[in-house]
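FORM 7B - TANDEM STRUCTURE REPORT

SECTION 1: FIRST PROTEIN
SEQUENCE AND TOKENS:
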Amino acid sequence: MYEDEKIRFKRVHGYELNLDNPKSFNEKVCFKKLFDRDPLLVVTSDKYRVRDFIRDRIGWEAENHLVPLLYVTDDPETLQKFEGQYIIKPNNGAGRWIIVEDIGGRKRYTVDRIGQFFDISTREIIMYCKNWFKTVHGSEWYEWSYGMINPLVVVEKLLYDNGNIPYSYKFCMFDGKCKMIYALNRDDITISLYDEEWNLLPVARKGHPIGEVKEKPESLDKMIGFAEKLSKGFDFVRIDFFLVDNYVYFGEMTHYPGSGHGVFEPAEYDFELGKFWE
């Protein structure tokens, strides 16, 4: 069973995927996506419905830290253009978006990883969004939770920090405890890895050069506190935040980072990180 997943894993990591007794972090990600059917995985993977989960866990304070919502629909035909800068995305996937920015008095549209365009029509936006619904994100990788989400198109305000897309901070939470933090630069390529005390780890992710060493964020404890509340009851979940002038905004919750195929360098760290996942 899952022979293609085992073949991919061996090709990427260089060792056999052990689903009977997983030890490494990536083995445990694969085990989770193949066998864990907790309904909360569906709720928290949903980029729209997770808002209510966050409100329930965090309480009254949550509303102030959710990215402002402009529109949500299950029918892309109802989409229109909005004032200001914003992002259009599906609630059931990753790597799919339309980022709308004001550049030199014109609207610039960054569409998925296709490219950047100026002044595209509403009809073109609708067609891009309809194309998102033609496939289920992660299905080829057995990412169960995404296939269980009722698809929606979500429009949110585009966050900016000093004129740029903000950095994202990704907290790897094991049974409610933070053990590793990704600091992902604005280019979405360079990554620095830190422990929960903000000590730089001598570890890299293959294909992602180590980014500049960043000062400890003033809001680090705030983000960890939120992440601890949100991750309670999950053996593992990654919880993402954005910082805008040190103000915290929730990003997303992810249960299958890299789909179990993200390579750590050195490879031994894969097994070190896996020890935190019980």
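SECTION 2: SECOND PROTEIN
SEQUENCE AND TOKENS:
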Amino acid sequence: MDALLKLHLQVLHGRVCSLFRGLTPIGFSSAAAASSWSPNLTVYRCSDRFLVWVDLAGVERTALTVRAEARRLSLAGRRLLPIPEGAACRQVLALEIDEGDFYREIPLPDAIDPEAVKAEHRDGLLRIDLPFAPQAAPTPPP
């Protein structure tokens, strides 16, 4: 399956699952276990590392898991949006911010050193430095 089509289907699936969770108190096991959104990211290939920036506005550090393997980076977590309290809010006029569980896996074209990975979560962005493995020579970009 085309990667772009797969991504669009994952986003659509997450939104449909979110819709069902909002409409009924009944839990759907397969829908509840699925990611409901996928954070946007930017990945740079530098001379000695990959730099990854992930848009995680509203995601608490304690709700975030980063896993680095030799040729793969995995991100998982949860974003919960505040719900207004009181009877003053009677209607939702816009609901555009994704919430719920997420999972994002990034295959890496060159091996990294998982022990040297560093991450910093600030101002809604997660920056991840992924230094290349000492024995890995970066593949030249196309």
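SECTION 3: OBSERVATIONS ON SECOND PROTEIN
Helices lie at 3-23, 29-33.
Residues 25-33 have pLDDT under 50 and may be disordered.

SECTION 4: SIGNATURE
Preparer initials: ____
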